[in-house]
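Q: what sequence does this backbone want?
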């Protein structure tokens, strides 16, 4: 287990019905519409007959806090920090986004339960509810699950009144100082009603135990868990069929059921392997029958693949060595908050894929199940993380308050839900856990590792440790199968020399800071913790960090990844900006969201994106920074950087050469970027030309000085949307001059109007200090750009988006709404 994993994986898709064919034996009803909500405590909120005329009508998934308003006192946290070697108490603003997520919320919905369901089992499944969920049916307490990131389910059958409407009620409570970032609020993930035969495959009821791939055969050993089995006299059989992508049966097995768990073995001839480049999947169909009559059908997608972590060669997939070029991702979706949306998730992953990213770390909690379903489809590898706290807390009301009663339950549920996804290659049991500094820290670590090994012996267990020597000394690091280091790239070689048998990865790296389109001079390595910089923005030269002990420019980590083949790869903190944790300005309002992202909160790439793209992808990358609008600085030196996949390039200002620069493998800041430090500014044209080894031109890009803002340009990411999956269109808004050149400092207020078959879901601009509400139809541009998010409201027709701003030529965009066909 320590260094090598060989395995075949299955992904349960029953929680993602849009990808499954219709099921005639079980009813899975998405409970998205018809909810009533109120954001306060209500005595008897679970009772039938309660007057709810003052409650809102909402659609689930729902995030009650994302509409705002922003306020510096929302969950302001007084926490202990280290300054000049002294422990002081410090007030931090915006730690959880400055949004009103703290408080109590009640949700109620009527369930139409026909009399024909009598004799069936009726269950409710929640993919996540933030937080401390208590579930009631017809006024009766059903159950609770406090961890807001956990998926869970309850059997409602005993309290159901068949042939009538039934009242489902859910009480949630978000406590103050319970999170270090914006957690969201409400029933923010999907809820389903599931109706089955009394004998049925249980929730997350299929599991692969002893996989093997050899001699052209794929062995599928499936453990299927049933609910409702009573005795062998029922004559129950389980038939499992495996289908390829052409829907052809390639393996079948039938077993007589003699208990609640059934082991089956199938052989697939010459299986195609799941990989990042070719995420090929099969489908398993599990059919339960009684006396020859089918009573339940359970759909599962799966993929064949094997992988290995080793102490000397890092990571390999299907026998091929590869680096994990990964990013850490929080769960919010920017302007739409924590409410899960498949098209928003897919957009994020598409942007990351285009950069060359091949791996995701789900920091620091169980993700939405839809994320893993998309990583299965799109070809990402996943470090799936469970906790940010154990018994010793980071936040007053954090997970430490749940540890004793819920740690094992939450971890088991997490593994059972996700242990069959082919994209998941490791369980991460914790991030920067405070037990690293405790003498008995290894005992807590082993407790969780043992659970993981018991529930899923096919994957390694990892964690993200930033206290390097403490976690080594107390034995925590040695308990893990793959040791994850948060930062400390300078120590990779030293640790490898001391512990040559350890498989290791950079579980959290760099934490560079930047704001899209913001440039500060001089362009040099800068520790922002030591000074204020108004207007609370970070430089997009990608040389700002918050703490020299933990953080580094991206160049430094890339260099050590390249020189350390034994390191399996890295997960950059972070792929996208996220709400909350606005370090280093976390006590300076109005800073309310992070600066760590390679992509900003609106999904617009920062300059740093192209550095990673030049190293991680096979694209021809040539990206120049900064912009070329520096009014009043004529003749003064401007630092110019170029992120490129080419070895050398020549820079020109209005046709005059500024010299050739070539990458220097022995110089950190010339290894991954080309630098011209003192380019005299004059308005006009800045051009860079990539050169081959003989100094012949290959490719060029030009940046022009923009004139006054003249008009608006709308660029949608798609020309049509469907209503069946709440699909969104993301429209990038650019302010340009009369010649169509982007105005890189424009901050005009844009007013949006949407007519026809859709609505404005949200707007954003990527500015971490902007306090405009995400749901308002007015949004200021940030450095020339902002974003409008459009959602359909009917099944077909056209959506017309109009963007206007005083003094600018307006723009309009038509997006078609099509009714998606269900296969």
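A:
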């Amino acid at each position: 287990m320590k260094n090598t994993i060989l395995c075949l994986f299955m992904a349960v898709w029953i929680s993602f019905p849009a990808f499954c064919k219709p099921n005639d034996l079980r009813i899975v009803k998405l409970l998205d519409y018809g909810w009533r909500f109120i954001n306060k405590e209500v005595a008897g909120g679970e009772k039938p007959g309660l007057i709810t005329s003052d409650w809102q009508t909402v659609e689930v998934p729902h995030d009650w806090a994302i509409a705002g308003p922003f306020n510096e006192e929302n969950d302001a946290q007084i926490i202990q920090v280290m300054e000049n070697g002294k422990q002081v108490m410090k007030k931090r603003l915006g730690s959880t986004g400055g949004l009103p997520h703290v408080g109590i919320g009640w949700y109620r919905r009527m369930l139409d339960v026909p009399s024909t369901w009598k004799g069936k089992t009726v269950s409710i499944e929640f993919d996540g509810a933030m937080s401390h969920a208590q579930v009631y049916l017809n006024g009766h307490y059903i159950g609770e699950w406090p961890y807001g990131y956990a998926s869970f389910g309850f059997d409602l059958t005993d309290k159901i009144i068949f042939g009538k409407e039934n009242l489902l009620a859910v009480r949630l409570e978000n406590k103050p100082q319970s999170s270090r970032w914006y957690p969201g609020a409400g029933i923010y993930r999907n809820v389903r009603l599931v109706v089955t035969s009394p004998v049925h495959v249980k929730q997350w009821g299929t599991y692969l135990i002893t996989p093997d791939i050899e001699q052209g055969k794929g062995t599928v050993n499936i453990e299927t868990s049933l609910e409702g089995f009573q005795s062998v006299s029922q004559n129950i059989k389980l038939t499992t069929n495996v289908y390829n992508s052409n829907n052809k049966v390639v393996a079948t097995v039938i077993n007589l059921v003699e208990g609640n768990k059934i082991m089956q073995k199938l052989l697939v001839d010459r299986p195609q392997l799941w990989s990042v480049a070719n995420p090929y999947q099969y489908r398993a169909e599990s059919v339960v029958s009684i006396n020859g009559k089918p009573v339940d059908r359970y759909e599962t997608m799966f993929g064949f693949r094997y992988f290995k972590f080793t102490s000397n060669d890092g990571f390999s997939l299907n026998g091929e060595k590869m680096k994990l070029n990964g990013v850490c991702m929080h769960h919010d979706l920017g302007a739409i908050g924590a409410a899960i949306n498949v098209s928003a998730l897919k957009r994020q992953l598409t942007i990351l894929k285009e950069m060359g990213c091949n791996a995701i770390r789900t920091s620091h909690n169980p993700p939405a199940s839809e994320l893993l379903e998309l990583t299965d489809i799109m070809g990402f590898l996943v470090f799936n993380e469970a906790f940010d706290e154990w018994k010793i807390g980071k936040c007053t009301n954090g997970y430490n308050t749940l540890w004793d009663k819920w740690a094992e339950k939450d971890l088991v549920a997490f593994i059972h839900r996700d242990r069959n996804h082919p994209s998941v290659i490791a369980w991460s049991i914790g991030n920067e856990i405070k037990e690293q500094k405790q003498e008995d820290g290894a005992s807590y670590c082993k407790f969780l590792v043992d659970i993981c090994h018991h529930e899923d012996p096919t994957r390694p267990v990892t964690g993200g440790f930033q206290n390097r020597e403490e976690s080594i000394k107390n034995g925590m690091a040695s308990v893990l199968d793959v040791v994850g280091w948060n930062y400390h790239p300078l120590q990779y070689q030293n640790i490898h020399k001391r512990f040559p048998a350890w498989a290791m990865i950079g579980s959290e790296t760099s934490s560079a800071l930047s704001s899209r389109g913001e440039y500060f001079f001089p362009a040099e390595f800068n520790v922002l913790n030591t000074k204020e910089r108004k207007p609370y923005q970070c430089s997009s030269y990608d040389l700002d960090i918050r703490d020299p002990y933990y953080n580094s420019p991206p160049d430094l980590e890339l260099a050590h990844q390249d020189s350390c083949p034994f390191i399996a790869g890295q997960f950059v903190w972070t792929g996208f900006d996220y709400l909350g944790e606005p370090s280093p300005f976390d006590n300076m309002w109005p800073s309310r969201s992070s600066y760590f992202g390679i992509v900003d909160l609106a999904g617009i790439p920062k300059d740093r994106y192209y550095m990673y793209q030049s190293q991680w992808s096979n694209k021809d990358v040539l990206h120049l920074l900064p912009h070329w609008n520096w009014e009043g600085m004529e003749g003064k030196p401007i630092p110019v950087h170029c992120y490129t996949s080419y070895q050398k390039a020549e820079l020109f200002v209005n046709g005059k050469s500024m010299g050739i620069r070539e990458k220097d493998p022995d110089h950190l800041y010339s290894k991954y970027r080309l630098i011209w430090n003192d380019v005299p500014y004059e308005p006009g044209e800045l051009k860079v030309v990539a050169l081959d080894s003989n100094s012949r031109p290959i490719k060029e890009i030009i940046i022009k000085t923009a004139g006054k803002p003249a008009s608006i340009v709308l660029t949608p990411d798609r020309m049509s949307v469907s209503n069946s999956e709440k699909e969104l269109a993301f429209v990038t808004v650019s302010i340009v001059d009369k010649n169509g050149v982007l105005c890189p400092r424009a901050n005009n207020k844009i007013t949006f109007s949407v007519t026809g078959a859709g609505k404005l879901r949200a707007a954003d601009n990527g500015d971490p200090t902007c306090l405009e509400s995400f749901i308002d139809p007015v949004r200021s541009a940030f450095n020339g750009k902002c974003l409008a998010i459009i959602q359909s409201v009917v099944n077909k027709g056209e959506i017309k988006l109009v963007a206007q701003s005083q003094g600018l030529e307006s723009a309009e965009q038509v997006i078609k709404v099509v009714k998606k066909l269900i296969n």
